[in-house]
Design a protein that fits this description.
mainly alpha
Length: 241
């Protein structure tokens, strides 16, 4: 990877880490389309590693707001979802996964804009966990399902509980990817190189939380994610012509 390509990836990961630490999701929705365009070999493992680091920090920060029962139901659903996501990586070619990535991002933005907010009861948490596990393992974008069922909670609770879910879920996804042979030596090297970008993004989130309320920041994430997905679709169209 060239220096210019790495700079673009690091910038995307930094901004995505800031978003993840501010509203509880967004690492995959924002960074994955950029990484897929610049260096697709980093998906999904390196991005999941970066998400693991920032979610760990947020869980420690928001530990007083954790809801272990609700998160437990979501994690129970995450197990079959992670298995399904791993199978997608084996069965679907890279171009197909790229299109799936764009479709997931656009679908997530449309559903969010429609304002559908299911209650965070046990059944919905389990279903959202399964959907998040499938999408997160296959495309690094597992945020939208969990964001929907947590959207009505107070800010610290949203960040803490979603981060707790994504922390455990990301570790499960990494284990599944390792078993499937989808990780290599360059994965860890790229992650270590991106650690400063992740930490900088987290630090920036402390200021962002004071300047922007959750709704405004969420709107920004939707716009940026949709733009990234459209750009990704355009790239695939150019490759096909």
């Amino acid at each position: 990877m060239s220096i210019a390509a790495f700079a673009v990836v690091a910038a995307a990961v930094c901004v995505a880490s800031c978003m993840q630490a501010s509203i509880g999701f967004g690492m995959g929705m924002l960074a994955a389309p950029v990484v897929a365009l610049v260096e697709p070999t980093l998906l999904p493992a390196t991005l999941i590693m970066s998400a693991t680091l920032v979610t760990l920090i947020v869980v420690v920060r928001e530990r007083a707001s954790l809801d272990f029962r609700g998160t437990g139901w979501a994690l129970a659903g995450r197990v079959p979802g992670t298995v399904a996501g791993t199978l997608l990586l084996v069965w679907i070619p890279e171009s197909g996964l790229t299109l799936l990535l764009a479709a997931v991002v656009l679908g997530g933005t449309v559903v969010t804009l429609l304002g559908w907010n299911p209650a965070p009861v046990a059944r919905n948490m389990a279903i959202a966990g399964a959907a998040s596990g499938l999408l997160g393992t296959a495309t690094s974008i597992g945020g939208p399902p969990m964001a929907l069922v947590n959207s009505g909670r107070e800010g610290a609770a949203v960040r803490g509980n979603m981060s707790a879910f994504f922390l455990v879920g990301s570790l499960m996804s990494l284990a599944a990817l390792a078993i499937a042979g989808r990780m290599h030596s360059g994965t860890g090297t790229a992650f270590l190189a991106l650690v400063p970008a992740v930490l900088l993004g987290y630090v920036a989130s402390r200021w962002v939380n004071r300047l922007l309320d959750k709704d405004r920041l969420r709107t920004v994430s939707i716009v940026v994610s949709a733009a990234g997905a459209v750009l990704l679709l355009g790239h695939q169209v150019l490759l096909a012509t």
